[in-house]
Amino acid sequence: ATATTAIALMLVSALSFAQNIYRPQDTTGAIASYEVLGVRLGMTESDAVAAIRQRFPAGTQDANGRVINLRVSDYQLTSPRTQARVRAGVRLDLGPELPPGRSSGASNFNFVKLLVHEGRVWAVWRDDQGARYPYEQTVAEVQAKYRGAVPIPSAFMLVNGGSISREPGPPAVDGLQLYAGQCISPPLASSSSGDKISLDPACNKAFHWSYQPRIEGGVKVMASGHVQLVDLEQGRAFMRFLASASGNMPGDKPRTS
Predict the structure, then answer these.
(1) Among positive and negative, which fits the CA dihedral 17, 18, 23, 27?
(2) SS3 of 157, please?
(3) Are 123 and 111 in contact (CB under 8 A)?
(4) CA-CA distance, 248 to 254, in Å (whole number)?
């Protein structure tokens, strides 16, 4: 009897752990209505680019008051089969306008990336380095916009001048998330060395909005963060295409170099 009880407790514990590692589930189809910067999943590439341009018209300033210089280029990934660079969508860099002769250098933290398969967007990904938004207003706006998404609990980072306190501040919300399927983590991540795309096979759709809650000189702000909206099913279809090296699927025809 003791052994049976122990096994039962182990099964309950394992089930509880499995439930805890998966992200909050979209039980109402809310993700289908979400948009990021005017871009929805399944939108045509041309309409998505137009939506981003509309969101950042000429003269738009960043969080530091500098005029944004919107630069559009192909987003490319490497075929694991041929090692060729294959067009995978559009990258829109949002660095500030710089004086003539000056270069911003390579940056992989301030962009919008539209990942595309067969002419349709399967992911919209915004990295927002250097952002500063008012905390209460921003949280209220995104919770109203992304109804059904679950808040991510956190704590404020305390910043005074150039000094960051080792002690966490009061409780805060650092984002919202919602997933369809057994999703362990957000599928997209960027670093100085490049992008990481992890398309969990049991995860179907993902929404993740996350910024850093800070108290800077007594003022609550949302600092640098990211937002991603991803159709992993279509993403896996693109990855199969990327690995096939066919390069001539109807409606896609990626350029390689």
Answers:
(1) negative
(2) strand
(3) no
(4) 7
Per-residue pLDDT tens over the stretch 39-59: 999 999 999 999 999 999 989
| CA quadruple 33, 37, 38, 44: dihedral, nearest 10 | -100
Global pTM reads 0.85
Side-chain-side CA neighbours of residue 203 (13 Å): 25
Mean pLDDT of 75-93: 92
- Is residue 105 scored above 50 in pLDDT? no
Q: What is the mean pLDDT of the chain?
A: 86
Distance in angstroms (rounded) separating the CA atoms of residues 211 and 191: 16
User: What share of the chain has pLDDT > 70, as a percent?
Assistant: 83
pLDDT at 220: 97
Q: Is 245 helix (H, G, I), strand (E, B) or coil?
A: coil
189 exposure class (CB count in 10 Å sphere: 0-12, 13-18, 19+)? middle
Contact (CB, 8 A) for 220 and 22: no
Return the DSSP state at 170: S
Give per-residue burial for 145-166: e unless 16+ CB within 10 Å, then b: ebebbbebebebbbbeeeeeee
